[in-house]
Amino acid sequence: MDDHIVILIIALLVLLYGYISKALSRLNISGPMVFTSFGLLLSPLGLNLTQVEVDSGFVKIIVEIALVLVLFADAALLDFKLLKQSWKIPARLLFIGLPITIVVGTYVAMLIFPEEPLTYLLLLALLLTPTDAALGKAVVTDPKVPERIRLSINVESGLNDGIVFPIVLTAVAMILSGLTEAQDNGWMGYVVEQIIFGALVGGAVGYLGTKLTMKSVEKRWMELSYENLIPIALAILSFYLAESFGGNGFIAAFFAGLYAGNTCEKTRQHIEDFTETEGELFVLMSFFLFGLVFVPLTLPYITFDVVLYAFLSLTVLRILPVMICLIGAKLDLATMAFIAWFGPRGIASILYVLIVVHEIGTMEGYETIYAVVTLTVLMSILAHGLTAQPFANLYAKSHKEEHKE
């Protein structure tokens, strides 16, 4: 019964937010802020109108589809032609900044949570490494911000999910190998299998699906209204097909999108159209469930140490690695700081936590990790949502010449 109530509430919330979304954006109030707030309001922390378990099928399906669509769309919307011209900054962020973030995040976690096992702390650092451009949407969509800066932030957000996810699987497999003899010494093979089969299945689905789409459009066999639906069907198909063959469905969705979006310009446009409408609905629903389910569940475990690490994760543990990796990139200090600040934690962290809960089968013993992730995301929704447009305006104003170029 609760699931039906949640669906009804989400429908009403979409209507309400849709009617006043533009007015709220002028006040720097974002969709994730609104949906998370309503989730909190209706949760046991507020009016207690409905309760949904974190491991319920409803929550799992919603966030699973949301992550599949996010990874598929992020990969599909990466413009390889533009990336060839401005690849240096994203490469620094992904291949220098990201590893530094993981290492420094793990080390600081060891200092703050010395009683926790190293693998748990590595997992914590990994869960908080992916960034979410959706929480600072104004930064990557405002044409006043120089294109190469917008591209760099967007590419980092789009690719770090896919890079980090196999390492998350590795950390989970390492933890499980210490808990169950059945998986002992077999975690490396499990991870390799997940990555290889996921990539192969995703690439195959993306290749064949795009070819068939192009052929169908050429022969005029397809109704126009279905051109937006085909890519989404490919994303979901790649996920479940990979899972059936022992691969990782999320990696498959990423590779399927990578091929689909960079093979056919028309397909790419339809993916972009879907992402801005139906795709965003699933993301906002995930933030609603985050406020409704995750926050109340982890609130009792929020301590001073949890608050400290969450604050450091959004500031020093993000800003310092980015500033280091951009040394020598011929960027001024304001640009380096702008890129460093806009590393919000959002949808990927939430969904990865759910995957970890699903894989491990319990939250017992991992309360500190989940509490840190929850609080970090909650702080990020507020901090980056409020600063996105003002900081974008301020930065664009001081870099007009670069924008003209």
UniProtKB/TrEMBL annotation:
Domain Cation/H+ exchanger transmembrane: 13-392
InterPro entries hit by this protein: Cation/H_exchanger_TM, Na+/solute_symporter_sf
Organism expressing this protein natively: Shewanella hanedai (Alteromonas hanedai)
Location(s) in or outside the cell: Cell membrane
A Pfam family of this chain: Na_H_Exchanger
Name this polypeptide is given: Sodium:proton exchanger
One cellular component (GO) term of this entry: plasma membrane
PANTHER family, sorted: CNH1P, NA(+)/H(+) ANTIPORTER 1
GO process annotations (BP): proton transmembrane transport
Transmembrane segments: 6-24, 31-49, 61-80, 92-113, 161-180, 186-208, 229-261, 281-299, 306-329, 335-357, 369-387
Recorded GO MF terms: antiporter activity
Topology relative to the membrane: Multi-pass membrane protein
Keywords: Antiport, Cell membrane, Ion transport, Membrane, Transmembrane, Transmembrane helix, Transport
